Amino acid sequence: MGRKKIGTTWTSFVKSIASFNGDLASMTAPPFILSKASLVEFSAYWTEHPKLFVAPAKESDPEKRALAVLKWFLSTLKQQYSSRNEKLGSEKKPLNPFLGELFLGHWDDPEAGKTELISEQVSHHPPVTAYSIINEKHGVKLQGYNGQKASFASMTINVKQVGLARLHIDAYDEDYLITLPTLHIEGLVYGTPYVELEKSTIIQSSSGYFAKIEYTGKGWVSGKKNCFNATLQKVGSKDILYTISGQWTDSFTVKKGKTEVDSFSHKNNPTTPLTLKPIEEQDPLESRRAWAKVAVAIDKGDYEEIGMEKSKIENAQRELRKKEKEEGKTWERRYFSSVEKDSATGKLLDLAAKYSVSLGVPAVTLDDPSKTNGIWLFDEKKYEGVKSGTREEELKAAVEKVEAATAH
Ligand SMILES: CCC(=O)OC[C@H](C)CC[C@H]1O[C@H]2C[C@H]3[C@@H]4CC=C5C[C@@H](O)CC[C@]5(C)[C@H]4CC[C@]3(C)[C@H]2[C@@H]1C
Questions:
Q1: Fewer CB within 10 Å, N- or C-terminus of the chain?
Q2: What is the per-residue pLDDT across 96-129, written as a single tens digit (0 to 9) for each?
Q3: Is-contact 181 164, C-beta < 8 A?
Q4: What's this model's pTM, rounded to 2 decimal places?
């Protein structure tokens, strides 16, 4: 597509962003910036290095375990925030998942064994994705949910994430609360948007360790992009046990005092591919199957077809919500349940308060649950129900409702 073409559509598009209402998902963007991937797929970015994900379970020393969690978290950032640039040349606009959309898969790794991914769009207004990533062999689970609050200023889209992630290590009955980075999208003017992370995130463990990661963007000495500095401390002590620094898109080193004790580089650590069922075997609510026709239209860059196929799905959803409203029902989430603020928030905030470091840095503030339509927790009973087949009728009825609404 010639420069001119990108120029007109893109410029008018960027102007439209300037007046958007904060809900990124509701924007219609030019075909060349659309990605075929739905936002519900992004949960997979947490575990594309399964070895690092299960490594903490092998550390009996709690300090080394906390360091292994920090190293795993840092290894996820490149895939989370810059894998579209690598694969597609720039950040792209993901498809806006419909309520109940699923993304199910697993990673097979000779050492880590099988790691299962369950991702579900638990809210459409506002868009909220919940996920549960489980490695039974090593007893490591990551569960969380997130939404985004976006604003626009001086040609940049600022995105604050709401929600959080919790890592649980069965062998030590240990929890790690992970907050989600604030990001902004640069490069909009040139039509080549990319993510830069900013401010800081916290990893707060129930065993008293506390990591703080500061995203410093362009290193003022090195001029390199995507720089960060991280420290690991023990609650209540000012001693810095380890420092980790480098570029989250490339490599980083771990230091104890002045001595380098470990390092990680993406070049030497290729990601493990996610295994998905072939589209024809997928549940109709699974993302790749549900959006298959839109993906074809995006490949063709056929604006009309994209619009037509997307509105079939979106109209069906509107119809379902209308019917549910009339019947006084709500959509039954397949794997997650929203719990009252006091029970879940209380537990999470007690954990954070109990372990927050006396350094006066707030450990973890759980965003206002009304921003994410509640606190979404993985529901083991629902999961067992799916695995044992006792929910067969209920799930079939749900799929039939969606298919009936999409048919006409
Ligand atoms: C609507 C404006 C628009 O389409 O502008 C086009 C540009 C592609 C910029 C907007 C989109 O940029 C995408 C980047 C997405 C975030 C990337 C990574 C993550 C981490 C993951 O764990 C949770 C989701 C999150 C925060 C993505 C959220 C959606 C973002 C901001 C996309 C923007 C619509």
A1: C
A2: 999 999 999 999 999 999 999 999 999 998 899 9
A3: no
A4: 0.93
Determine the Cα angle at 148 with ends 152 and 211, to 5°: 110
- Of the candidates 207, 243, 47, 237, the one whose C-alpha atom is nearest the C-alpha of residue 140 is 47
Atom of ligand 1 nearest to the CA of 46: 22
* Residue 175 phi, psi (nearest 5): -115, 145
Q: Whose CA is nearest to atom 2 of ligand 1?
A: 24
DSSP notation for 154-203 = TTEEEEEEEEEEEEEEGGGTEEEEE---EEEEE-TTTT--EEEEESEEEE
Residue having the nearest C-alpha atom to atom 4 of ligand 1: 93
CA distance linking residue 189 with residue 191, whole number of Å: 6
Q: Does residue 230 have its Cβ closer than 6 Å to ligand 1?
A: no
Nearest residue to 97 (alpha-carbon basis) of 125, 68, 65 = 125
146 lines ligand 1 (CB under 6 A): yes
Quick: pLDDT tens for 28-55: 788 889 999 999 999 999 999 999 999 9
The residue type found at 255 is K
In whole numbers, what is the pLDDT of the chain averaged over residues?
Answer: 89
How far does the centroid of ligand 1 lie from the alpha carbon of residue 338, in Å? 24
Is residue 251 within a helix (H) or strand (E), and if so which, with residue range?
strand 251-256
Contacts 24+ apart (CB under 8 A), 239-243: 241/63, 241/67, 241/209, 242/67, 242/70
For every residue of 18-51, DSSP letters joined together read HT--S-GGG----GGGEEEEEGGGGGGGGGS-HH
If one residue of 83, 91, 143, 201 were mutated to test the ligand 1 pocket, choosing by the most ligand atoms within 8 A of its CB, it would be 91
For residue 83 and ligand 1, the question of a CB distance below 6 A is answered with no
Pair 230, 245: CB distance under 8 Å:
yes
Kindly tell me if the per-residue pLDDT of 11 is higher than 90.
no
Ligand 1 pocket residue status of 88, Cβ below 6 Å? no
